[in-house]
Amino acid sequence: MTSISELLAAVPPETVPPDPLAAPAQRYMIAFTPRSGSSYLCERLERTGAAGVPREILNKDLMPVVLEQIPASTPAQYLQRVLAVRATGGVSGFKTSWFQLAEFSGALPDGFDHWADYRCVYLVRGDLAAQAVSLYRAVGTNVFHTNIPVDDAARRRLEDLPYRYDEIAHWYRHLLEQEQAWEAWFRERSIEPLRVTYEAVHEDVGAVSHAILSFLGVRGSDEGLREASVFRKLGGSTSAQWADRFAADHAARTGDTVRRSPDDGVALL
Q: What is the Cα–Cα distance from 88 to 67, expressed in whole angstroms?
């Protein structure tokens, strides 16, 4: 598997500009768990014109595309250049899963200390059963986002995918592992993130966006938020039925209750 260092070493040195770009004055990260509405939220934040262009820049699968546009030769230089190019008004940020952050931090000379000056927004999903089902369906069909057209073949994959408790339980544990890692990191570093949920984003993404801007100390425009989003919900009645079924199956098999409500220990805006 290609490492962060190997990806950067493959960038032709002559394509990397010698002059460093000034780091944005305000930097932030959106710490998320998969299928929590992060792409939709980040698209809305970008539309405010005050939060930069928060994308998934630590994802190794996406880094080659970013490096073609913004060449860099070291992890620290990559971050500085990407955040500088994608800043608005001195503010820039990105979104990251726990595993992405941990791997990228391992490639930085100062490790996790590199993020000390970043403000953190923590995005999770209150209904963990629905989140696990959504992740199972996305991985099982390779249908992740609605900004990419869902053609007839993709719809058939979604319709033909069977309910499988063991596979949904695998993704449920994967989500719990990320939540626990994020919480431990916040606790160990005395970080107080702004906590938001998928449910709050779905209910009023404009209010969530402005709460994040306030947390960052900036103000944005509502004009972009009034424009239609390229994202919409993929889940429907099948996902809802499977979430109920999985929660019941999991309780029967393990005796543990799956979190279903955003009020179960998850702060809402």
A: 20
